[in-house]
Here is the input.
Amino acid sequence: MTLSTAYWCVLVVAMLPYVWTVVAKLSGKGRFDNNDPRAWLARQDNPRTSRANSAQMNAFEAFPAFAAAVILAQLAGVEHPRIALLALIFVVARILHGIFYVTDKASLRTGTWFIGLVCVVALLVQAAMHVASPV
Here is the structure.
């Protein structure tokens, strides 16, 4: 695996919030109101719509730390296959996180959230350790 793999993962993770946005809009009642999308969402009573919106917000929240971790690991000189592997695991965890969020599987959602967090922390720790160690 190459660093390019990790960069593709960053792109996928950047797009994930929009996937859950589409799910929220498609599972809502009535035609989506693009003039006032937040008010439309607030009027929705379908739990799936609410969960998809929450998955969207969580995906937006997770993205910056992941992207920064990939970049910092790369800048620190962490081995590219290791960065790519952690990035791939993060992507799988985040896709499953959204699926479990939308389908109301709270325990599985929490587990995949934690796996994603571990990947980000691992990338950051690897970066810090690599910079701190003599080359």
